[in-house]
Amino acid sequence: MFYGLSGVRHNSYVSDSKLFPVPADRNAVVFFLLLGLAAPYLVSSLYLNSYILPWLIWTAAVLGLNLVTGWAGQLHLGYAAVMAVGAYSAVHAAKFGIPWEFALLIGGLASSVIGSLFAFAALRTKGLYLALTTLAMQFVMDWVLTHSPTIAGGSHASLQSPTFALLGQDITSDAGLYYVAFGWCVLVTIFMLNLRRTGLGRALVAVREKDFAAAILGVNSFYYKLVAFAASSFIAGVSGAILVATFYFLAAPEQFAVNVSIQVLAMVIVGGLGSILGSYLGAALILLMPGVVNQLFSLGANLLGLDLGIETLAHIPNAAYGALIVIFLMVEPLGLGKLYANVRDYLMVWPFDQLKK
Amino acid sequence: MDLVFLAELTVNGALTGLLYSLFAIGLVLIYKSSSVPNLAQGALTMLGAYVVLAFSHNMGLPLWVAIPLAVVIMFFVGIGIEKVALRRLAGRPVIMILMMTMGIDIFLRGTTLAIWGGSSRSVDLGVSYEPLFVGDMLLSRIHIVGASVALALFVAFFLFFRSRLGIRLRAISDDYMASWSVGISVERGVGLSWGLASIVAVATGVIWGEIQGVDQSLSILLLKGLTVAVLGGLDSIIGAIVAGIILGILESVGSFYLDEIVGGGSRDLIVAAVLILTVMIRPHGLFGRHDIERV
Fold this sequence. Notes:
The complex is a heterodimer. Chain A has helices spanning about 15, 25-40, 45-70, 80-95, 100-125, 130-145, 150, 175-195, 200-210, 210-215, 220-250, 260-270, 275-305, 310-330, 335-350, and strands at about 160, 165, 170, 250. By secondary structure, chain A is mainly alpha-helical. Chain A has one domain: ABC transporter involved in vitamin B12 uptake, BtuC, CATH 1.10.3470. In chain A, the strands form 2 sheets. A two-stranded antiparallel ribbon of chain A has the order 1-4. Chain A has a two-stranded antiparallel ribbon with strand order 2-3. In chain A, helix 4 packs parallel to helix 6, helix 5 crosses helix 6 (about 130-145) and helix 12 runs parallel beside helix 15. The model of chain A has no long low-confidence stretch (mean pLDDT about 85). In chain B, strands 1-2 form a two-stranded antiparallel ribbon. By secondary structure, chain B is mainly alpha-helical. Chain B is globular. In chain B, helix 1 (about 5-35) runs parallel beside helix 5 (about 140-160) and helix 2 runs antiparallel to helix 3. The longest helix of chain B is centred in the N-terminal third of the chain and has 32 residues, at about 5-35. Chain A: GO terms for molecular function: branched-chain amino acid transmembrane transporter activity. Chain A: InterPro entries: ABC_transp_permease, LivM-like.
């Protein structure tokens, strides 16, 4: 119906490996791209900068984690620490007078270097042990941030970010900041979309599925793990820097603490491992859910005449957040991306779905 | 720096370490039977302490009634978690299992705090806060009580794993398929190990709740418990005890020297360093089995 495959015939490998083999997918992407470009004129600036902007930046970060966890299959519980490295180096560089374009690059590269250290853990261990090592590294990074005033910025442990500027132009307007986040998210998305069409992406998937088998096929699994960690850390670093520069305006250690690492991983899981669309949906769900749940509960309490304490209301979103992860893993372990794919696969052949069975 | 002080640091460190072992035993029980790293043990510990409090403070029951009641309830909570959430993930990649236990952790923590509130409370075990003098050393009474509970639990589990039921659990941890084929119900065994771990969580929650108050910080024990469990070998209870003592001493003596250099708070750093070094150098820990896969 929406995804009519009739008339779509691929006669060569090149056309078969196009970015969007189904025209409907391409049209949908173009539509959402235009919608994203027009967003500042469609949405009030309150929604634009307090919901859509952080959503786009977190999506970019989630895509980065998906690269290492979803594609290369390496567990990473210290992602927020890597984002912190990028954010702090970029802000320090910008304070030092380096233009923001290069500051972002410095942040990304610094993250890459530190993030590759995590890859050396991946060289020796995998699965649970890799998760524990990265978790420990996250704690070390937290400790460094809270115990070194030179990095974290004095006794208040907060670091003011200088005014964001690109190409010498100060960017202060709401729409301007939004476009920065939008541009970065689109860049990362294009990179990730193309990744699965390249040898690199296929090698990563081979490493994920079975690293011995990949090694037998001549895929150097350590090299590809290192590449995955470095690339994902670069994305993490720049995302962290942009997050601080356009959203928080202030870098503080608790913005990149352990629970943030877990939150990003939850976005990946809820969205679906290795799914790009899922990264968007997962980030949106996890970011929006606490507010919505709180609204619902206070509404429900009002309707029923119950008096819920402030403390209770404060902790209910947390419980709902945990429940969300549990329910997703129980019902659809491959997340929202898979749910969408199911619908799409069904509609692709509709009304001739008997042909599939 | 005199020897008595060093001895005091060591003994107190070892006692604290045994309290970490108490936590780690819960992790080991579950990992041993089902190879599930239970990141929800921190939340279970917290929940256990809150359930005891709910009986003793809110309902006014004496502690010797409240604690057994909490043990029974938590036993079934543990079995329930395994049955509802973990069983259907058997055979899935470890990331999903990890994330599931983490989700349960967040959920339990949120629910517990939503019901009982986050303000810190004490259990009032009736152990005096007066320090105990052994020669010239000052020891904390509650730490001694906790350490004895840890050792008692160790002995209890040592005996338990020699009973008929315990041998069944050991068979399950050796080989799923083989135990299935000789008629052992693997599901029930794994459920039982979750129940036992939840009982351990009650003990941990009560002791730690007495030491630092019952609040959210109970679930932060997770990193230390994990470190102890990994250092001991994840599937060895004696390993958890020995590793707990080692980590406790390292932490207490090490942080005394390190704090002067780095300006305080080096305890967490030592724990993280021990965890990283263990995984890098000897991933199967001190007493764990060697079948842990290296890349």
